[in-house]
Amino acid sequence: MSDHTEHHIVSPKIYFAIFGALMVFTAITVAVARFDLASVWGPLNIIVAMTVATIKATLVVLYFMHVRYSSKLTQVIVIAGLFWLLIMLVLTIADYVARTGWPTPLGQV
Amino acid sequence: MATEVIEKVESRSTYLNNGHTVKSWLLTLDHKRIGLLYLFSISIFFLIGGIYASLIRLELVTPEGDLLTPDTYNRVFTMHGVIMIFFFLIPSIPAVLGNFLLPIMLGAKDVAFPKLNLLSWYIFMLGGALMMYTLINGGIDTGWTFYPPYSSIYSNSEVTMAGVSIFITGFSSILTGLNFMVTIHTMRAPGLTWFRLPLFVWAHYATSLIQILGTPVIAITVLALALERTFQIGIFDPKLGGDPVLFQHMFWFYSHPAVYIMILPSMGVISEIIANSTRKRVFGYHFVAFSSLAIAVFGFLVWGHHMFTTSQSMYAGMVFSIISYAVAIPSAIKTFNWLATIYKGSVSFSTPMIYALAFLGLFTIGGMTGLFLSALGLDIHLHDTYFVVAHFHYVMVGGAIIGYLGGLHYWWPKMTGRLYPETLGRISAVIVFVGFNFTFMPQFILGYLGMPRRYYAYVPEFQVLHVLSSGGAFVLAVGFMLPLFYLAWSIKYGQKAPNNPWTAFGLEWQTASPPPTENFTYNPVVTTEAYEFEHVEEIRNAGKTGAIQTA
Amino acid sequence: MADSHASQYGLAHHFSSMEQQREAGTIGMWIFLLTELMFFGGMFLVYAIFRTTYPAGFEQGSHLLSVKLGGLNTIVLIVSSVTMAMAVYYSQIGEKKRLVGMLSVTLVLGLVFLVVKYFEYREKFEHHLFPAMGFYAPDAEHLALQYHQQVRVFLWIYFAMTGLHALHMIIGAGMLLVLILMAHKGRFTTSYNSPVEICGLYWHFVDIVWIFLFPLLYLTGYHLTGH
Ligand SMILES: [Cu+2]
Q: How far apart are the C-alpha atoms of C76 and A51, rounded to whole Å?
């Protein structure tokens, strides 16, 4: 079988470092959400929020879930999962974006 | 567990005589027995779905709606679709032949997670039981596509229960796919590299990918639909500010790839049969293997071709249309490679090969008419007509079911240790082919002339074609019933099968028929490429000595 | 190479080696997580479409949620992820007592999360914010009917997504309970600990889902505070 699955033990120091980073990013995302950034650029709030969340998720996947030290196969599985999720989100949202008049008429208050 | 005395007639222990109690079947962890449990259950669902099909064709013999009320007719075609798709076609080849053969083809003792495998059958039966409950309560009348807002507000049938049933059944499909993927990755015999795998295994790998990635989406979709129907949550219902087209997006994200869950395993079966019946290695092995994966990937990019006539954006329609054309490429690669394999091969017209040849013709027609439908302009004319009905029956019956029947015959001696009556097999294969074409060829013409699908009455001009179709359906039913009887008969009275009745290549033919519980009495090691028929003699002998070694 | 370890502890009969069994378990869990990803992914798609269609309704709806409780739960889950990772670490170096300890802390944190969630839900029900019968959005009389509906859609998505997430937490808590019992009985060794690792993967995945749910549901209307 694959030879690169010998077990890498991640040191607790790394776990605590990641924990610190996760807390900092949580604080950042809460702090930024206090401000309405729509005046700067409409979707800026959600972009910041999603960027921070993606960074946090990546840290969890790479270190807590050991993907950084895992076999190629595990890494491929993770990337494939993201790829398929993106297929669904991007192609569907692309349809909505390409429609004339979305989202304005429905979204009017 | 085993309490019965075995040392009567059978000197050799097989998976079949390893326990005769009901409990030994219902609690079995043996992938081969689970495969047979599935075979038994889906055959029942196939019969039920078939009864609904007969009702449809009977109603359509005359232009007037005289046999069924319009409401009953709606329920009949819906139940036909739901049962055939979710309870027969999707589990057919993977859960029966795949379960039985995949571990043996890999030289493994079992699938990676035998308990999950059994659980998947129980989940399937639970979903099936709920569908039977729905059926007894009158069934549902939404069409198998469950489009809201009809399904969420107006329908007076058991939509919620049917949704729950499909939600549950989905998990059995997911567990099967998960098991197969892990098994293929981790449990191949020494020497069995990826490119020595039978193409059946490649096809099942691609199928599993779709089951794992697509099925959860239909699960969440029907869950949302059930919520919408129960609480009017306003996600799909336009009156409450929801979007019915969003439902269609999510539904087809699974349901288009689901077509490949049905057809890919069938393609795997066809590869095996054609290689064996022509005594040649499948031409372009690598292309056929990778085209399975390509179909699995591309299959996820085309779902919008079901929504050309909705409010889906024109630009999205164009993209989906073009990618739909692209998905024809890997299918064509397969078809041409099979033809090239047959070319100058020593073809034997056994029952499985007749099915395989039928597959080639029918799947080609089914696939090509799919291209008509993925053309943006033409689809406006053909959308929701009998042309669509004929198209997907050519793919699902002409492709998936024909492949399933071919495979069932091909591996029947291995599964049961008995030979089926070959002449009857050939006759019924020809009957299926003829009956099928009489049933569905007229429907292409009907659709082109403008006969809409799901109508219980029609203008008198269409009657000739409808009668032809119904007559063909009768012939087709005879063709489907025949194997049911002679296969069942052969279990008891058929001639005893040798280990390798086809002198075929592959690990499954190196073990006994029927195989012992642990599949092999020796640890198989693979030293040859796939389909090297020059080596088949020595391999056969290895199998024989293996059988003799049995304790 | 097979057969030599027929009686090796923890090895199922159909695998030929511990390594093969461990690999199968890990890959199996990852593939299961793919399924989970697409399952939640469907809900995220619904969220994305309606958030863009009804931006104002979503901000108003989000404003009804408690950032304090949501934030507290975020911290609880992140800490529980760390303790889970530590549990895996102790199972790898074979410290049984600490393994049991870390698993128990993780379980307690998971239960804390669920209790907080329960109080959040109860508060919503008491204020008629459960979007079914008797639903009544605050300031409804000032709002157009359509707008009222937008808040309702948001709350549905909130209940559906957090409900599914909570269900996964409950399943995870059950898994942890089994692990604790097994660890307590000394079932895990340095060469047989893959159940801990596999449950760890699941637990971290559930944490990741929450990492996205928190900003999408709770923080979307946070800037309305104090306006
Ligand atoms: Cu399609």
A: 21
